């Protein structure tokens, strides 16, 4: 028996897992009893001062979990009042309802009282439509009164597939879920609406907790084996040569942050490709980073004959969108991995198909867009409200034959073959100027050392978050760079 802490399972896949468990001989009612017991335990441990457990039950199995929790809370001495709809006859939910003492009141009858704690067992993860007006009224009264909510599986009104409310939605203090997380537990704003999520083992066999279309929570198992290994025979070029392109005089700081991040990631050599007018200014800021004056296509073409160059980062503070497109065409011809960020992404906003044509040979392109950049490059995907952030990232990755690092509090990393990970461990203070430039350089440095693009992106995003945690609140991007590569 187990839980899977790294696999994200869609509500539809979870339904198949539940059905497979029962078909394999497991007692479905025993699973419901275990689920309800976990809900009751969270309620007692997190709200020992509650005066009344208000258990709101839907007609399905989620409601069945609520009836079990209500019975156990009542047996422990808690005053319990149930509201909702009675389940239909014959199933596990009906059995749980039958052995729970006390009446079931209409939802409309609930009025907040001091000391109430709501247990939301109305819908769980399966709802993908707006809740009824009756339930929306309950949600409104709960919000206005500040009544704390414990959600069973997911807050009612929240899509477990997209992490986006379908209309009115509970905001939970705690969410109790079972066997595996759903995308809605990690994707924003779902993660915030769930509060603290408790993933509980209810006796589901580990062999059944799987998916034929897996999405993962970003974790070391996705990239550990591909991390660069140290060797006594190494020299600076064998550890990779990263090139970061600098913008003009006024905006060279972004490229410096990227270059320093690439160096601290372990790359043996990092060079700034700098416009001639900015070389002297950059030189006053650089020690371990080399420079190469690159004015135009001719300068770059000449330099790209150096086969010791391993990877490129272009975009941070670059400025000139036409030159960015021209340079990227030349970089595509090298066969080396390329990271596009910031201005390099915006440069293809009106012609993304041209970008896909440049890198259609093998997987070696990584894009790191934030929400606005993603929208500029993929407006049709961004405007499709039926798609989750995972869907959008996957479709964009396939369209460009690239790894997409769709940044945010819920950064999604997607490869064109469908592999996908959601990172949810980064601290909120990473939302600061220059943080994205650091991430681009970090991924570029890992690519320079030979990591495959998807693994480099997953590792880079994870290391970026770890560095942010070590740097602490109120950090600057300069502080962030200095924490890369330090032991946890």
UniProtKB/TrEMBL annotation:
Domain YjeF C-terminal, chain residue ranges per copy: 219-488
Positions with a binding annotation for K(+): 62, 120, 156
Keyword Repeat: no
Gene3D superfamilies, per database record: 3.40.1190.20, YjeF N-terminal domain
Binding-site positions, (6S)-NADPHX: 61-65, 124-130, 153, 254, 317, 370, 437
Reactions listed under catalytic activity: (6S)-NADPHX + ADP = AMP + phosphate + NADPH + H(+); (6R)-NADHX = (6S)-NADHX; (6S)-NADHX + ADP = AMP + phosphate + NADH + H(+); (6R)-NADPHX = (6S)-NADPHX
InterPro entries: CARKD, Nnr, Ribokinase-like, YjeF_N_dom, YjeF_N_dom_sf
Residue sites binding AMP per the record: 407-411, 436
Cofactor note: Binds 1 potassium ion per subunit.
UniProt function note: Catalyzes the epimerization of the S- and R-forms of NAD(P)HX, a damaged form of NAD(P)H that is a result of enzymatic or heat-dependent hydration. This is a prerequisite for the S-specific NAD(P)H-hydrate dehydratase to allow the repair of both epimers of NAD(P)HX.
Family the entry assigns: In the N-terminal section; belongs to the NnrE/AIBP family.
Protein name according to UniProt: Bifunctional NAD(P)H-hydrate repair enzyme
Native species: Hoeflea ulvae
Designated gene of the protein: nnrE
């Amino acid at each position: 028996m187990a839980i899977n802490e790294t696999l994200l399972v869609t509500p539809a896949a979870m339904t198949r897992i539940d059905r497979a468990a029962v078909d394999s001989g497991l007692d479905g009612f025993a699973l419901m009893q275990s689920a309800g017991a976990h809900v009751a335990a969270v309620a007692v441990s997190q709200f020992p001062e509650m005066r009344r457990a208000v258990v709101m039950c839907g007609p399905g199995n989620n409601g069945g979990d609520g009836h079990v929790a209500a019975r156990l809370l009542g047996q422990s001495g808690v005053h319990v009042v149930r509201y909702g709809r009675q389940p239909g006859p014959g199933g596990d939910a009906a059995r749980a309802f039958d052995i729970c003492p006390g009446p079931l009141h209409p939802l409309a009858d609930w009025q907040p009282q001091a000391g109430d704690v709501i247990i939301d067992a109305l819908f769980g993860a399966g709802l993908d439509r707006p809740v009824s007006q009756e339930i929306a009224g309950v949600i409104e009264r709960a919000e206005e009164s500040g009544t704390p909510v414990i959600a069973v599986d997911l807050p009612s009104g929240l899509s477990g597939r997209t992490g986006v409310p379908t209309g009115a939605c509970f905001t939970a203090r705690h969410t109790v879920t079972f066997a595996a997380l759903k995308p809605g537990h990690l994707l924003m704003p779902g993660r915030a609406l769930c509060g603290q999520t408790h993933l509980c083992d209810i006796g589901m066999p580990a062999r059944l907790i799987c998916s034929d279309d897996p999405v993962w929570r970003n974790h070391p198992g996705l990239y550990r084996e591909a991390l660069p290994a140290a060797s006594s025979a190494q020299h600076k070029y064998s550890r990779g040569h990263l090139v970061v392109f600098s913008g003009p005089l006024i905006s060279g700081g972004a490229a410096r942050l990227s270059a320093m991040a690439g160096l601290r990631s372990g790359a043996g050599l990092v060079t700034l490709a700098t416009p001639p007018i900015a070389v002297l200014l950059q030189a006053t800021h650089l020690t371990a980073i080399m420079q190469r004056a690159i004015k135009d296509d001719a300068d770059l073409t000449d330099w790209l004959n150096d086969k010791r160059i391993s990877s490129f980062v272009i975009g941070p503070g670059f400025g000139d969108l036409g030159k960015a497109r021209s340079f990227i065409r030349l970089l595509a011809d090298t066969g080396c991995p390329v990271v596009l960020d910031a201005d390099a992404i915006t440069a293809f906003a009106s012609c993304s198909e041209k970008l896909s044509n440049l890198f259609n040979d093998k997987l070696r392109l990584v894009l790191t867009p934030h929400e606005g950049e993603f929208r500029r490059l993929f407006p049709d995907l961004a405007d499709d409200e039926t798609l989750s952030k995972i869907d959008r990232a996957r479709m964009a990755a396939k369209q460009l034959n690239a790894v997409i690092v769709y940044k945010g509090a819920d950064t999604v990393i997607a490869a064109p073959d469908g592999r996908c990970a959601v990172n949810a461990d980064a601290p909120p203070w990473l939302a600061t100027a220059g943080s994205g430039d650091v991430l681009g350089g970090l991924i570029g440095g890992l690519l320079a050392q030979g990591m495959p693009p998807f693994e480099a992106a997953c590792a880079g995003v994870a290391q970026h978050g770890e560095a942010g945690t070590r740097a602490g609140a109120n950090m600057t991007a300069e502080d962030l760079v200095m924490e890369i590569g330090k032991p946890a």
